[in-house]
What we know:
The structure is a homodimer.
Chain A: E1 10-14, H1 19-30, E2 34-39, E3 58-62, E4 77-80, H2 87-92, H3 94-115, E5 118-124, H4 151-171, E6 175-180, E7 183-184, H5 195-205, E8 209-212, E9 218-220, E10 222-223, H6 224-236, E11 244-247, E12 252-254, H7 255-266, E13 272-275, H8 290-296, H9 304-318
Helix pairs in contact in A: 1-6, 3-4, 5-7, 5-9, 7-9
Amino acid sequence: MSLGRQPARTVLITGAAGFLGSHLCDRFVAQGWHVIGVDNLLTGIPRNLAQINGNRHFQFVQQDVAKPLAIDCHLDLVLHFASPASPRDYLRHPIATLEVDSVGTFNTLELADARRARYLLASTSEVYGDPQVHPQPETYWGHVNPTGPRSVYDEGKRFAEALTMAYHRSRGLDARIVRIFNTYGPRMRADDGRVIPQFITCALSGTPLPVQGDGRQTRSFCFVDDLVEGIYRLATYEGLAGEVVNLGNTEEVSLLELIESVASLIGRTPQLAYLPLPQDDPSRRRPDIRRAELALGWTPQVPLREGLRRTIDWFARAG
Amino acid sequence: MSLGRQPARTVLITGAAGFLGSHLCDRFVAQGWHVIGVDNLLTGIPRNLAQINGNRHFQFVQQDVAKPLAIDCHLDLVLHFASPASPRDYLRHPIATLEVDSVGTFNTLELADARRARYLLASTSEVYGDPQVHPQPETYWGHVNPTGPRSVYDEGKRFAEALTMAYHRSRGLDARIVRIFNTYGPRMRADDGRVIPQFITCALSGTPLPVQGDGRQTRSFCFVDDLVEGIYRLATYEGLAGEVVNLGNTEEVSLLELIESVASLIGRTPQLAYLPLPQDDPSRRRPDIRRAELALGWTPQVPLREGLRRTIDWFARAG
């Protein structure tokens, strides 16, 4: 899509080699932006950027955003997507997670403030913890254990939200926050511990599927293309400074239903291996997305079965 | 109290020139410790340390703990008490508050870890937010708005707790967390916006007492000597690594009852000036202190009226 005579705008995306970050790099380049992607490759992988490496509108900087950022050029937009995000990743890197969500957020906010750029923080449904309200609207304060093992991510992101709002309130920064619910699609790491890549890779290889708890806990899964569309709108629409917006799919499925869908698409009946439920695992979580519908005209478009089919295709090719 | 033949142990106390920090410096020096007090004097005041400046067991370092700490000596104990702590202070310094509670906590944890020193984090009843459970035990997860104006302190401290526990879990650091409920006594700043110094200074000067809301919201107030005793025990008792302990007084009084006590001790009937309630102001908060009773053998000893009398005497002399 051409921007006509308008000069290319520049966006800095942290976590560029991650699952969501890499899809955002693709999308912004496709929309005519100049993209600077930053990643320390702690949990991101270079292969996620193979398709735009060499594109003259894309530049990759390998760096930890918890270290001072030496980015000298003009910026219109900063998207802070760097952070381990799956429980397996953040429990393996607890201190690095707390560091990127605090010091990394400070550094990227300072950069955006210095360039008078707009700022978008990638937050998460994990800020709602194990919610006592269903579905969760943005006004719900959450139910999070501040000292449990998962607090490294949940409290890290709650801190990042508080900090982002402080820059918005006290420095006048045009900052926005997206709370991202479970998302899936191509480029998830097979080993990140999340259920969809795990179920797909197990089903493809014919090994037993691990099920935590009784498998009746529900989740809502949003296909990555839908999520990227919502983020693009939240990042580029005018008049949303200080807004917090949930993005996710409202369709709830239990883990057992998810397994059935994956199995029927692959055409194999899987063996199940039941495991204990991890500490503070939320039993249920579903977004209230009325704010996104109203402010962004956004609703998810890709049905679960269709998204799973595309994801299985990608894993079958990538594997 | 003499330590006999034992060599003096060394404690580093951040926030040393603050209300609680300065009383802790006094207490540890009195118990035979060598004390290094650190403060950037953002909200602390040098006068709070006048009584031990010059003592050969006390050393003051003026520095922001969010900047790297150049402390080379052996340390047995680190007490992290630096942070703006009254709503007026942290709303005036929102970004500095988030910085000391995150980067300052990182720096002091790294220092304790490098010296194999024990670590004690000063946390707060504000991590419980506007609680939906009364009284609040340490197992209560809290009810905090992550993006409201007060989140700079509430989420800053929740982050500091999560970080402290991460160092305890992943590095084996002997770390402990104290959640401090409302405390009062000599050396509170008259202008810090908290109710007891405000009521006392207004009553002493004969100006109207500001009451937020209808004055029926309750608080529990602990006299500083009681609190310092509890902190000293939590910092020095063996076998409490990874513990989170509430310290505070369980006696609930409404703001109107508090005003009556102050007025009767001073001997003047005050004028009241009613003001609107600030955003997210907790309507009620009271500690469950059974864990402190069990683990530390601690209960508050000073009745409110006696503590108020000593505090009024100090304000009358200091003013």
